Please model this.
Amino acid sequence: EILLAIESTCDETAAAVVTRDGRVLGECIATQEKLHERFGGVVPEIAARAHLERILPVIDTAMTQAGVQGEDLQAIAVADRPGLAGSLLVGVVAAKSLALAWQKPLVAINHLHAHLYACQLSQPSGESVYPAIGLIVSGGHTTLYLCEDPINLQYLGGTIDDAAGEAFDKVAAMLSLGFPGGVEVSRWATRGNAKAYDFPRSKLHDGSFDFSFSGLKTAVRYAIVGPGRQDFSSLELDDSTKADVCASFEAAVVDTLVGKSRKAIRQHGVKRLLIGGGVAANGRLRRDFAAAAEQDGFQLVIAPPELCTDNAVMGAIAWKQIDRGQFATLDLDITPGLQRGF
Ligand code: ATP
Ligand code: MG
Ligand code: FE
Model:
């Protein structure tokens, strides 16, 4: 049994053909990094246009690689929420058109549930990783959930301002390290001293499961240029300062994530933590969470690095919805924003 999954929530156009038992028969991801790089962030109009140009070739590539045709599919799944409106629309319209043309059922995926489901796909035995505490650390979200199963998630808390990935991207921009910044900042961080700057661990002990990264971002700004300066283009920092800033910033983000996640595990008595989203590819994050898991005695499942950033393989979550008879109809619409983390 196979299905086609489509992902176009932000700036990756992706399609995958996945079997019910989790095998990937075909996959294609067209990233738009080069298109958005000079703007230092994703430009929604450019993203939508690029999705439109790429969606059919991307689907075609995944299907050809898998050696399957429309008639071979059990269903067509697409992420319909959350994300950029124009981006989501391209994937949803493509999925609906193919579902109609091929007369196949349609499944609507929550992109955040899929980010966490990437953890399930790391289990070779297929053993369930639920129930668990789920932490999503991505470009748009930093959220903790109590996950009963892949689809029933209870919101525990989330960022009240920037997402963790967004903070990485903004710090990278301040240091002129390129976009997307997460990978660059973490590369520089490996050569720096994480104790060089004492950056704030905001909200760490406030009793909530919320996060805040805008104060940290401002602290980084002050550390490198002092208050008030807006233009970073002429800033000259030596490499060791850059590396120290990156390492200290990264440590502050990871400390906060680890602290809150530990608390969620303790409070809810769930002995397993799932982590998904682009920032989960970060080396320090993976190391520090592994140490915390060993110390506190919980099972840690982080999405495989290649399934942390946006991809369509994690759309395999659609099988769980198919099993429950949760299908979408051809009047499916996009849902760009979420209410309190859903
Ligand atoms: P969302 O899923 O919330 O809609 P998104 O899909 O744009 O947002 P992802 O693709 O999951 O986000 O992740 C992208 C983010 O991950 C970017 O902000 C990027 O800088 C960050 N990132 C990627 N690799 C790393 C890394 N090694 N260390 C830190 N951050 C990283
Ligand atoms: Mg992206
Ligand atoms: Fe994402």
The CA atoms of residues 270 and 315 lie 25 Å apart. The two ends are 29 Å apart (CA to CA).
